[in-house]
C-alpha cells in the first residue's frame, strides 16, 4: 500500500514492493555488479585493446591514423561501442536472463562504469610524468 499526496492506493512502487515483501536480494545485486565489471574487462582488456595493439603494428593503419585523425577517432569510438555493447548484450542475455530487473540493470551499469573509472584512473596515475616543484 502506498500513499500518493494523501490518497491511499493499492499500487505499490517497485521500491515499496522490494522492501515490504522482502524481495531485496543482495546476491542478485552483487551478481549483476560482478557481471558489469566482467563486461568491461572482457570487452576492453581482453578483446578490443589487444586487437588495436595488433592493428597498430601495421604501417598502413599507422599512416591512416596520422593522415586522418578524425577518421581514426571515429574508428576508435565505433570499436569501443561495438565491443562494449555486444559484450553487455551477451552477458545480460545469457548470464542474467532470469534476474534482469531495473535495479539489477543499475547495478550492472555501476559495475561496468566503476571498473572503467578505476582502471583509467590507475592508468593515468601510473603513466603520468609528474614534475616536482623545486
Helix tally equals 5
Task: Please tally the β strands and state the result.
Answer: 2
Distance between the termini: 66 Å
What portion of residues is helical?
over 70%
**Class derived from helix and strand content:** mainly alpha
Order of helices and strands: EEHHHHH
| pLDDT < 50 stretches | 1-8, 16-22
Give a written overview of the molecule.
The protein is mainly alpha-helical. Helices cover 73% and strands 4% of the residues. The chain is built from 5 helices and 2 strands. A two-stranded antiparallel sheet has the order 1-2. Helix 2 runs antiparallel to helix 4 (69-94) and helix 3 packs across helix 4 (69-94). The longest helix has 30 residues, at 26-55. The chain is flat, with a radius of gyration of 22 Å. The model is unreliable at 1-8 and 16-22 (pLDDT under 50).
Summarize the structure.
The chain is mainly alpha-helical and about 130 residues long. The chain has helices at about 15-20, 25-55, 60-65, 70-95, 100-125, and strands at about 1-5, 5-10.
Could you give the topology of this structure?
Blueprint: E1 2-4, E2 7-9, H1 14-20, H2 26-55, H3 59-67, H4 69-94, H5 102-127
Antiparallel strand pairs: 1-2
Helix pairs in contact: 2-4, 2-5, 3-4
Please describe the structure with a list of short key phrases separated by commas or semicolons.
134 residues, mainly alpha
Amino acid at each position: 500500500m502506498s500513499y500518493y499526496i494523501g490518497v491511499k492506493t493499492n499500487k505499490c512502487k517497485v521500491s515499496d514492493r522490494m522492501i515490504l515483501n522482502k524481495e531485496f536480494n543482495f546476491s542478485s545485486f552483487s551478481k549483476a555488479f560482478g557481471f558489469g565489471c566482467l563486461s568491461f574487462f572482457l570487452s576492453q582488456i581482453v578483446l578490443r585493446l589487444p586487437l588495436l595493439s595488433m592493428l597498430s603494428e601495421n604501417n598502413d593503419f599507422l599512416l591512416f591514423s596520422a593522415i586522418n585523425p578524425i577518421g581514426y577517432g571515429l574508428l576508435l569510438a565505433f570499436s569501443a561501442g561495438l565491443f562494449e555493447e555486444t559484450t553487455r548484450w551477451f552477458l545480460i542475455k545469457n548470464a542474467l536472463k532470469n534476474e534482469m530487473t531495473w535495479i539489477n540493470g543499475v547495478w550492472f551499469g555501476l559495475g561496468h562504469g566503476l571498473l572503467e573509472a578505476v582502471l583509467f584512473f590507475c592508468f593515468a596515475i601510473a603513466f603520468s610524468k609528474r614534475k616536482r616543484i623545486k
